[in-house]
Amino acid sequence: MRASNLILIFVDSCCYVEEGLRCSQSELWAAFCDWVPDLKKSRIGRNTFYKVLLDYFSRVGSFFENLTLMDPYEWEYLEEEDLCRVYLIGDGECIKIGISYNPSYRLKIMQTGNSRELVLFATFPGGEKEEEYLHSYFKSKHKRGEWYFLDDQDILRIFGYFSGVELK
Fold this sequence. Notes:
Layout (H helix, E strand, L loop, with lengths): L2 H12 E10 H11 L3 H4 L3 H9 L4 E2 L2 E7 L10 H4 L1 E6 L4 E6 L2 H10 L6 E7 L2 H10 L4 E3 L2 E2 L3 H10 L4 E2 L1
Antiparallel strand pairs: 1-3, 2-3, 4-5, 4-6, 5-8, 6-9, 7-8
Helix pairs in contact: 1-4
């Protein structure tokens, strides 16, 4: 999930947006940190958070205009699985089954340390539970780490089992 999408979901789930409202940037950042299931995995820092908000709201000093926080009991919380994606990345020989909040970024980082061209085949909603299921299901095809010797039928089996698969 892109940082801007997650931040806009936060605004929609935890903020009132209306002319004349205002909220300090530090309060918004603290609330976002409380709201995100795992901030470290989201790879969103304070500066990115503020930059995305500036695309949609004006700032006067350290206050963002036209939005304020709801009381936390009104927030709509996301589960980790709502944000995380299972991904399939291949190198022409094997497929890596992993999870990430940003599979495209994960591909970029993995490519840096890999001499073979990597391709992001697909992503779908899921977290550790779905990843562990796939690792267990394909243990007979395990190569090393999270890499597996999967054929086309195996990939189709994955597509049939999980909903929300996005082909890349």
